[in-house]
Amino acid sequence: MMALGPYASFIVTSYVAAALVVVILIGWVVLDYRNQTQRLRELDRSGVTRRSGRSATDRS
Amino acid sequence: MTLIDLANPTRFLALTARLLPWLAAATVILLTIGLYQSALAPDDYQQGATVKIMFIHVPNAWLSMFVWGVMSIASLGTLVWRHPLADVAAKAAAPIGAAFTFLALLTGSLWGRPMWGTYWEWDARLTSVLILFLMYLGLMALWRAVDDPSRAARAAAVLTLVGAINLPIIKFSVDWWNTLHQPASVMRMGGSTLDKSFLIPLLVMAIAFTLLFVTLHLAAMRNEILRRRVRSLQMMQASRVAFSSELGAGSREENASKEAGAA
């Protein structure tokens, strides 16, 4: 077991906060991606196409 | 592939789809190694185990400035070269930079309480980093306040370049003023003053956090391109609806005048 001394709470809080912020950032990016692709699928279903003629969900 | 080739958002999306899994895997591996080495690092003779906070504080502090540097280059791309992805890059980087700056402030504060006896001191380094954090928030607010992305991009680019003046102030604040914050110990003339047992985990964590930034930034840029695609398709849909309703109203008026003429 790692000994963190009398200031263990400060060390643990720092690492937990960093982990939390990183998880929030990853969650934000993943949820935003899902949201945008969902909206593109809905537009595709309603028949809207890009100026190039490709469907809304086409990544090419 | 050159920078010009990446000006095409579709090519950029294809590239990120290929790169993101590899970048994410490399980030996870390096973070695991860095955390393992940080856990095994010895206690400092003065700081004791609180030196472990440095392994996350320092990479976040570096990245807080690095991300603003990336945004400044992207802003030049917007204003000077008018690169189509430059403002996408700047906008996507801001929330990530704000998160790293917040972590640098928080972990620094949590280190300061046991070492300095205070969570906060209005000295030059701490205050200039707090200003950097507020500038990130201001920039994010500016992006949200203006509907048209190209207008928002120009205003944000000017603000970003003005804010870049703060970067050398942060870096050299510990040399220019008498501050509570210790001077540079890694990136300095004459080499690092850190022992290898601290320097190696610190550098591994710094590379891991930089990879984390690159991964998140590319993913956020992809999201921003998709968001703009959604916006332009919605506008196209709205204009089609308006056009067809105008057409309908026009033919109704024509029929009504014909009927009136016949009567």
UniProtKB/TrEMBL annotation, chain B:
Keywords tagged on the record: Cell inner membrane, Cell membrane, Cytochrome c-type biogenesis, Membrane, Transmembrane, Transmembrane helix, Transport
Domain of life: Bacteria
Broad class of the protein's primary localization: membrane
Segments passing through the bilayer: 12-36, 61-81, 93-112, 124-143, 155-178, 198-221
Cellular location(s): Cell inner membrane; Membrane
InterPro entries referenced in this protein's UniProt entry, alphabetically: Cyt_c_assembly, Cyt_c_biogenesis_CcmC, Cyt_c_biogenesis_CcsA/CcmC
Membrane-topology descriptor: Multi-pass membrane protein
Family, similarity comment: Belongs to the CcmC/CycZ/HelC family.
Stated name of the protein: Heme exporter protein C
Organism of origin: Bradyrhizobium zhanjiangense
